[in-house]
Amino acid sequence: MGRASRRKKTTSAGDRATRQAAPQHELGARFQAAADAVEAALDQLEAASCEFFLASRLRRPYAIHDLLQLRENLEQIALEVSFAEEMLTENWLVPELTPRGKRWTDELTPRDLIEQVRAGGNREGRPYAQQLEANRATEAAVRTKLDAVAQVLCGRSNDCQVHVVTLPRDAPGPACWRHLTTDEKASIGALYARAVTDHACLGCSAPPGEPCDTSDSAKLEPIDGRWPRVRSFLGQKIHKNRLDELAPF
Ligand SMILES: [Zn+2]
Ligand SMILES: [Zn+2]
Q1: Residues with C-beta atoms within 5 A of ion ligand 1
Q2: Are 203 and 245 in contact (CB under 8 A)?
């Protein structure tokens, strides 16, 4: 507190201008200083514990071993912090999707940030904070759309409150699966079958004609930045992206 108020009194207009660009570097420097202090303390701990445990012929507790192990991690993290800070200050570009093709929406660790920037070669995407916000907005929009479809109620037979089945490209079906007419069931069932015969699945790599692998052990690829979802209709299970390959219903 003393530090902040002292600073306030001596700040001139010129100081303020230089400091506005500086706070990020200042924070990184503080992190580095704290990491250095911890490292020095760990050095002391190592030296003292070597002497003590050797002289006393006691076994060194595991907790001390663990603490000493942290030293390497801390050094690595401090390096990453300073590199990441540079990337933030210089507005390096972060791609929208991870190298696996998934849209990231969680805040990245310094290491993740460095890897993301590297993957895009500083040519793809936007500066970190902007890309984070954009990714979250995109995800929210997709979710809103999916939620809206999931909210459509059947309304047949005494105003049935069950949600309708969904068709390709998230179009709401005419009724819930229970209240579909026989013809509707047949035509929607045929859509599911046609999606399988006519299209490969980009989500689980099933070739045309073979059913999707909807098991927990399926090897999946993200589609448009998201993991493929499973849609099922009267026992037919299929990844939503494969169903969406069909022309609008
Ligand atoms: Zn119904
Ligand atoms: Zn599939």
Answers
A1: 154, 160, 162, 176, 179
A2: no
Return the percent helix, strand and coil in the chain, to nearest 5.
Answer: 60, 10, 35
Categorise residue 175: left if φ over 0, alpha if ψ from -120 to 50, beta otherwise. beta
| Residue pLDDT, tens place only, 49-59 | 999 999 999 99
Instruction: Measure 122 CA to ligand 2 centroid, in angstroms.
Output: 33
Q: Which ligand is nearest to the CA of 162?
A: 1
CA 244–ligand 2 middle distance (angstroms): 11
pTM recorded for the entire structure: 0.75
- The ligand with the least distance to the CA atom of 152 is 1
Whose atoms come closest to the Cα of 163: which ligand?
1
Structure tokens at 211: 């059913």
Among all bound ligands, the one having the nearest atom to the CA of 179 is 1
Q: Which ligand is nearest to the CA of 239?
A: 2
User: Cα–Cα–Cα angle for 199, 205, 208, nearest 5°?
Assistant: 30
- Could you say which ligand is closest to the alpha carbon of residue 174? 1
The residue ranges of every structural domain in the chain are 1-90, 91-151, 154-244
- Ligand 2 centroid distance, CA of 232 (Å): 12
| CB neighbours of residue 43 within 10 Å | 12
User: What's the token pair of residue 151?
Assistant: 């909210």
What is the rounded average pLDDT of the residues 19-26? 60
Q: ∠ CA 123-124-128 to the nearest 5 degrees?
A: 105
Residue 239 Cα distances to 92, 110, 111, 132, 219, angstroms? 36, 34, 33, 27, 12
